[in-house]
Amino acid sequence: MPAVTAPERAPRGASVMPDTPGWARWANDHRKWLFAAPAMAFVAVLIIFPLAWTVYLSLTDSAGSVRAESEFIGFRNYVDVLSDTDRFWPAVARTGAFTGVALFFEVVLGMAIALLLWRPFRGEKWVRVAILLPLVATPVAVGMMWRLIFDPNIGLANQALGWIGIGPQPWLAGQHTALPTTIFIDIWQWTPMVVLILLAGLTSLSDEPQEAAMIDGASAWQRFRHVTLPLLMPTVIVAILLRGIDALKTFDILYATKGRGGGSFHEVETLNVYAYGLSFDYNEYGLSSTVLILFFLIIIGSMWALTARRKGADR
Amino acid sequence: MRPSTGFKVFRTTALIVVVTSLVAPLVWMVAASLKTNVDIYDSAKALVFTPTLDNYGTVLQQANYVQFIVNSLWVAFAATALSLVLGVPAAYSMSRFNMRKSALVVLMARVIPGVSLLVPWYYVFSNLRMVGGFGVLILSHMFVSLPLIVYIMMGFFDGLPEELEEAALVDGLTHIGAFRRITLPLSVPGIATAGILSFIFSWNNFMFALVLSGADTKTLPVAIFDFVGYASIDWGGLMAATTVVTLPIMVIALFVQKYIVSGLTAGATKG
């Protein structure tokens, strides 16, 4: 209603409006969609259309070249992929292990560091700078940096183990140690992200519940477990959600440390690395689209499970 | 609530451990970039060595890195600028008219695996003879920047009181005029946050440039791989290259720390 009454209350507004050209008034009336439409169109053309195409490709035997003739084969790709215990299911397991272990350490360490930084202290500014550095560093470069540190022959890691009398480890070069080592790199780079989110949550909490618990004689651990943590839970879920989505999709550090196919034994081949290889190393577009659709469903499913828990926690 | 002395000692010790483990690997990277390959292989020269800038000479002259630095800057700048032009008005509309479903569509882009877009993009853009050019790189990086900017700016506009615009309407401005002359100038901190973060994400992006860039349009994260051979790795050159990629962004981060933190934590505490 203010649009109707404004000219009466403000004569100046009434005198300006007739001067404005018709197109400007039209733009003004349709600003809601005029503002939103370009971005929405961009998203539609660059995201929704390719996504629909991916769904279509997953139902065909497209391979070799995307321009080559391909046949509609229904759900045969899905049967093939879901019964593939050689590459697909191990990749699912690696994706789950990578995300689960990395998230666990990132949240636990992130919480501990955020609690250390919660109350002001001298030199706070410098600690915060140090926390920001891994976060903004280029992931591919981070992968290369750790590749040197974990090099079995010349790396700092084995040198340091030597000082405390432990023999050299293969790290990224070992068939069973490669995945844990890449998880370590992910934890190094992304724990700071969790710290920043949790710290923002902690600073937005009010002091009163803490003080009340203190007067009641609660110990530091009791105050954390029964006062701070429940209040902070919504922020913890947001941190897990944001970090979890990115961890599931990790590509850069895996490609930088192990190259194509996640290494010669596919030891760090997660779903994202597998789908990339199917698309751009083997040109199996039908199969890779199927893997991607299943991967996408896994991501959506885990997000949904988390947000459902979040709503449950609110009640 | 004053912390006890015991806690202070514990906190200082713990924080020294944290800071060391975050910073030491980066220091090691820069140190290796200043060593000859002979010194890198010599564990006796781990900390005491004669620094040399030879590796940087290799990176900047032989490996054509000046070109790749310019490429990275251009792609990140263009993707950020275009995303701001599209994203800021869209975020404003979505915040003021409460278009949560439309917002969800844009934010979907944060969830979708990038590989699933690359095959259709590659097909369409190779038909348009655009693969290997800057246009397609900028478009693909906008796929990362635009949702990020919409997400940050929506949160910002949600917190900007509508009364200011209503006052401008009473004074005779149109709605679009009020957005341009009142809302936009007040949004500079939000736009700076969104822009800086979008620039960093574009600078660091690897997968899209890996598939869509050509030999002349390569960005820095892809160019790093020039130092990794099948048989051997030029460690000194590689570490100089990684330093060239990461150091500028870390130096920038020191100066705009506040914006980066507020961008990364945007919307995290709304519950």
Automatic annotation (TrEMBL), chain A:
> Which keywords annotate this record?
Membrane, Transmembrane, Transmembrane helix, Transport
Main location as per UniProt = membrane
Task: Specify one Pfam family.
Answer: BPD_transp_1
Answer whether the UniProt record assigns the keyword Transmembrane helix to this protein: yes
Q: Which domain of life is it from?
A: Bacteria
Membrane disposition: Multi-pass membrane protein
- InterPro entries from the xrefs? MetI-like (IPR000515), MetI-like_sf (IPR035906), Sugar_ABC_transporter (IPR052730)
Subcellular localization is given as: Cell membrane; Membrane
Membrane-spanning residues: 33-56, 97-118, 130-149, 187-206, 227-245, 285-306
Residue stretches making up the ABC transmembrane type-1 domain = 92-306
Q: Which family does it belong to?
A: Belongs to the binding-protein-dependent transport system permease family.
Task: Spell out the protein name for this chain.
Answer: ABC transporter permease
UniProt source species: Micromonospora lutea
TrEMBL record, chain B:
Fetch the Gene3D superfamilies from UniProt: MetI-like (1.10.3720.10)
Membrane-crossing residue ranges in chain numbering: 12-31, 73-92, 104-124, 130-154, 190-215, 235-256
- Major location, coarse class? membrane
Q: Which Pfam family would be a valid example here?
A: BPD_transp_1
The answer to keyword Oxidoreductase applying to this record is no
Which keywords has UniProt assigned to this entry? Cell membrane, Membrane, Transmembrane, Transmembrane helix, Transport
State its location(s). Cell membrane
What region holds the ABC transmembrane type-1 domain?
A: 69-256
InterPro entries xref list: BP-dep_ABC_trans_perm, MetI-like, MetI-like_sf
Q: How does it sit in the membrane?
A: Multi-pass membrane protein
Give the similarity note.
Belongs to the binding-protein-dependent transport system permease family.
**UniProt-recorded name of the protein:** ABC transporter permease
Q: What is the lineage of its organism?
A: Bacteria, Bacillati, Actinomycetota, Actinomycetes, Micromonosporales
